[in-house]
């Protein structure tokens, strides 16, 4: 669901996200890490309540909450995390008490619902903030000995105050692959999806290369073999903390003989008879759209 900035640039303190947004103009986000001091003055707030982002709503238009510490001072909340600067303006994330009453013009909105209702880079920061504050919420105590955890300077890790354990915000890698035979793509259907079909996907296992994961997942879910793997792009998927790695691959051999029960239907589709597609926010949709563009180029070249 992450939407890509047009430029990734390296700065003294790490990588920044930059883009030219049709809604918000030129924007640049620079990440910061503990023990950076929380600045005074006006900041952009990314507060969560009940796993939803709190935003300002006026005439059905959504905007981020902006103001100094007094903006949330009257609401019970956790200590804010200073996560970065957007065009030089500090960005803070926090969790608001689930039972706290909100101002009338505030609304709690999930990340899925927020998609396309704010600028690209603001959405990306909201996703980043949500994963960080949830990580801090569940990592207050050591899972080994139950001692309190403390921040690790220079990053978002936390370490045990008594023992040697340390942990970091989880990033769960998963592959997704568009399989084609030149003129058709292979799509699968899961129970409960209605008329929608999707691409083959699955989680990377310990000790497994990404390419091995593609081959294994394809074999398990369809029974076929693929070749000519091409990496396309990746997408953070904050539900809760996956990193989707997108590939294209060409059908090599085999018949449909899945070894697991994830899919209840597997079939080939041409560009002219595609089923209901995954949502536009997904990497699957992006891969399918890219394939359709490639098909159009092939058609025009004839």
UniProtKB/TrEMBL annotation:
Residues 169-294 form the Nudix hydrolase domain. Its EC number is 3.6.1.22. It catalyses: a 5'-end NAD(+)-phospho-ribonucleoside in mRNA + H2O = a 5'-end phospho-adenosine-phospho-ribonucleoside in mRNA + beta-nicotinamide D-ribonucleotide + 2 H(+). The keyword Nucleotide-binding does not apply. One of its GO terms (biological process) is NADP+ catabolic process. Keywords: Hydrolase, Magnesium, Metal-binding, NAD. Pfam families: NUDIX, NUDIX-like, Zn_ribbon_NUD. PROSITE patterns: NUDIX (PS51462), NUDIX_BOX (PS00893). Its cofactor is Zn(2+); Mg(2+). InterPro entries: NAD-cap_RNA_hydrolase_NudC, NADH_PPase-like_N, NudC-like_C, NUDIX_hydrolase-like_dom_sf, NUDIX_hydrolase_CS, NUDIX_hydrolase_dom, Znr_NADH_PPase. One of its GO terms (molecular function) is metal ion binding. GO terms for cellular component: cytosol. PANTHER family: NAD-CAPPED RNA HYDROLASE NUDT12, NUDIX HYDROLASE, NUDC SUBFAMILY. Belongs to the Nudix hydrolase family. NudC subfamily. This is NAD(+) diphosphatase. It comes from Dictyobacter arantiisoli.
């Amino acid at each position: 669901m992450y939407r890509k900035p047009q430029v990734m640039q390296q700065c003294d303190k790490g990588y920044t996200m930059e883009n030219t947004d049709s809604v918000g103009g030129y924007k640049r986000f620079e990440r910061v890490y503990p023990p950076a001091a929380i600045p005074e003055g006006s900041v952009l707030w990314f507060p969560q309540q009940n796993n939803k982002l709190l935003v300002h709503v006026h005439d059905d238009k959504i905007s981020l909450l902006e103001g100094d510490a007094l903006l949330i001072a009257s609401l019970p909340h956790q200590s804010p995390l200073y996560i970065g600067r957007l065009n030089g303006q500090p960005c803070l994330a926090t969790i608001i008490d689930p039972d706290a009453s909100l101002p009338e013009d505030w609304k709690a909105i999930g990340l899925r619902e927020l998609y396309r209702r704010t600028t690209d880079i603001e959405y990306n920061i909201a996703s980043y903030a949500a994963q960080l504050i949830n990580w801090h919420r569940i990592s207050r105590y050591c899972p080994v000995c139950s001692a309190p955890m403390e921040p690790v300077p220079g990053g978002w890790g936390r370490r045990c105050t008594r023992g040697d354990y340390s942990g970091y915000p989880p990033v769960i890698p998963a592959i997704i692959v568009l399989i084609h035979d030149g003129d058709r793509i292979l799509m699968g259907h899961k129970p409960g999806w209605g008329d929608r079909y999707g691409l083959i996907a699955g989680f990377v296992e310990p000790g497994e290369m990404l390419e091995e994961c593609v081959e294994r997942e394809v074999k398990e879910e369809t029974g076929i073999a693929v070749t000519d793997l091409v990496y396309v792009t990746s997408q953070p998927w904050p539900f809760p903390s996956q990193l989707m790695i997108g590939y294209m691959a060409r059908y090599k051999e085999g018949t449909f003989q899945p070894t697991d029960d994830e899919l209840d239907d597997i079939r080939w589709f041409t560009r002219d008879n595609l089923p209901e597609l995954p949502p536009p926010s997904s990497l699957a949709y992006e891969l399918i759209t890219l394939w359709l563009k490639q098909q159009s180029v092939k058609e025009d070249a004839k």
